[in-house]
Specification:
alpha/beta; FAD/NAD(P)-binding domain; Enolase-like, domain 1; 3 domains; 5-stranded parallel beta sheet; 27 strands
């Protein structure tokens, strides 16, 4: 009879980590179970931080994950406000920042990702990333002031959501992006231009093809919360922009530094097989996991909410099932809300994929576009036509051809 783990440690009080804990108990695991989180908060949702919280519709505390009140009922040993700093695979020990060690038979790595920063720029006061509840609280407080000036560095989805929320709160917004168009590497040039037009039409000062050279404090500026002062953003073209707050959104990196020297394979995340195993008795899930996808024929690391929500339970099931575990075959999906317009994308797009628009038009700013490679449907995106995307998601799940998508 197969013997499963008797003690499991989940490192990362994230969406993926919490869903793994939930699945372990729901699947009947009744052994010792510990959850480690570097933040002091109970697990919470990150998408509302750039949407409802920045819009002033939610308090940050409302982002708490549904079901976290069951952690006590599930008899989970919590280590919040305590980071994992090392892993000894042969000894089955996780080292914590407070000097303690946790032993395990099974381990779930769900430490997520951390924001990249600008070289030489100190991320304090009113120069922020948007990753935590504390970040959202500070940014939202600035947006609550009349005619606040916001500079967003990086026109990825987080940066553009911050820009949209800021405009909707009445702020004067400048977005600085090194590339010629925002999101071009993700959604292609024509779709990227449509996204850019969405912001331009709402009054955003979009600066592309430039970078931030420095961010300097303004000594004459009024003191702000946390004792910070207003800032001046100096661009590579020599222009200077005054800001009440600067939000840096230039991407993230997988949180794997604590695993260096552990023996796990690290390469833009924790490398896993198609069942999410990084090593015997060790699985990974969420932003930190880079797993072998048989569907897409590549190693994928996906930074979307839906991936973390699905991978957490899948990793837990794999840990309990061992060699009998099922492959993880989910289709990546994400969404973004900007000025009340919903952008949704499913699948995995490559720059060389064939692109076809199947609903609406780029000029109208409402459309559905699909991509394919070697006759196979690989991805689809909708801008302002969310309901139209449902059928294409089904086709991707069925591994349909590009011809099937065009016929639809």
């Amino acid at each position: 009879m197969k013997r499963g783990p008797s003690s499991i440690v989940v490192v990362g009080a994230s969406l993926a980590g919490f869903r793994a804990v939930e699945a372990l108990r729901d699947q009947g695991f009744d052994g010792d179970l510990a959850l480690v989180g570097a933040e002091r908060h109970l697990p919470y949702e990150r998408p509302p931080l750039s949407k409802q919280v920045l819009l002033g519709k939610w308090s940050p505390d409302r982002a708490r994950l549904r079901g976290v009140e069951r952690l006590e009922e599930w008899d989970v040993e919590l280590h919040l406000g305590t980071a994992a700093v090392g892993l000894d695979v042969p000894s089955r020990l996780v080292a914590l920042s407070n000097g303690k060690e946790l032993s395990f038979d099974g381990l779930v790595v769900a430490t997520g990702a951390e924001p990249r920063t600008l070289p030489g720029v100190e991320m304090t006061g009113r120069v922020r990333t948007l990753r935590t509840i504390e970040d959202a609280r500070v940014i939202s407080e600035v947006l609550g002031a009349p005619a606040s000036r916001v500079v967003v560095v990086g026109a990825g989805f987080i940066g553009l959501e911050v820009a949209a929320a800021s405009v909707m709160r009445g702020a004067n917004v400048t977005v600085v992006e090194l590339a010629d168009v925002p999101l071009g590497n993700v959604v292609g040039t024509r779709t990227a231009k449509a996204c850019a037009n969405l912001h331009l039409s709402n009054g955003v000062d979009l600066r592309t093809g430039v970078s931030v050279k420095a961010i300097a404090p303004e000594p004459e500026g009024a003191k702000e919360p946390e004792g910070a002062e207003r800032a001046k953003v100096i661009l590579s073209d020599g222009d200077r922009i005054d800001a009440d707050i600067v939000v840096v959104g230039v991407g993230v990196r997988a949180c794997t530094s604590w695993l260096e020297g552990s023996g796990l394979r690290l390469d833009n995340g924790v490398l896993c097989d198609d069942r999410l195993f990084a090593a015997p008795g060790i699985v990974a899930a969420g932003d930190v996991a880079r797993w072998r996808s048989t569907r897409w024929g590549a190693n994928l690391r996906v930074e979307h909410w839906s991936n973390a929500a699905e991978q957490g339970p899948a990793a837990a099931r794999s840990l309990l099932a061992g060699s009998e575990a099922d492959r993880f075959t989910s289709v990546p999906f994400f969404w973004s809300d900007q000025y009340g317009t919903k952008i949704q994308m499913i699948g995995v797009r490559h720059s060389s994929d064939e692109e076809r628009i199947v609903r609406g038009s780029y000029e109208d700013g409402r459309f559905v576009v699909v991509w394919g490679r070697d006759g196979r449907l690989t991805a689809a995106l909708s801008l302002g036509m969310a309901h139209e995307l449902v059928a294409y998601r089904r086709l991707l799940e069925e591994d349909a051809s590009l011809g099937d998508a065009l016929a639809l």
